[in-house]
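Standup notes
- DV: blocked on the single-chain target, sequence here:
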Amino acid sequence: MKKKILSIALTSIALVSCSPKLSVISGVRIATENVTREVYVFGKNEIMPENTAFLGKVETKGNFFTSDKFKVNESIELIKEGALQLNGNAVKIEQIRSPGPFKSKSYDITALVLQLEKLPIQSFKVVTETNNKDSRYIKLYRPKRVFGSGISFPVYINNSFVCGLDNDQKITIELENGNEKAYLQIESYGKLYKVPLAYKNNSVIFVECSVSRDGSPKVTIPELNDGEKEYSEIKNKL
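- DV (later): unblocked, structure below
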């Protein structure tokens, strides 16, 4: 009987521990008439608008039992929940910590919670179609590989956070108004790797990303036909 109770207790602990813990490190919930469920995510190097109010700080923190399914995108959703607890409508990423072998299996994030009078208008968005003739498009993809499959790369456009890019995944990013000065950044272990975007006689550029031996992103720009074929073979998309 005691063994059965112990088994149930251990199972309960494992289940409770499978998700990272969301913590409000510091902060105060403000009263506001403009309650919104939308939370804007700033990259850590992005410049804040004027009249930005700081409400507090939140973080996700996993442990050895945390599910390795909590990569960048899943942890960002938890951070947004923390912002909503303080009636914030934006967060600014301070740090994205990669999993360690004996600590957390999740991508733990620390972020500042903010209240903005007006949310910024992004010059890019994630889309499924490439039919706007006035825009340029980035088709970013990671082929399925065994090596580095657990690594999740945070992706930025001009320091603005876009998403996490996981193994066997693809994403199409639209740069509105044909932004020729845009550049792509991919983060690994706190370091940002800049990817210049040189379009040829086309509004679409394919960017292949894989994992190098040291865990950094290995980026190649394939020819249009090759990139289109490789991109179409990947089924998991944001």
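- Follow-up: Residues 2-16 form the longest helix (15 residues).
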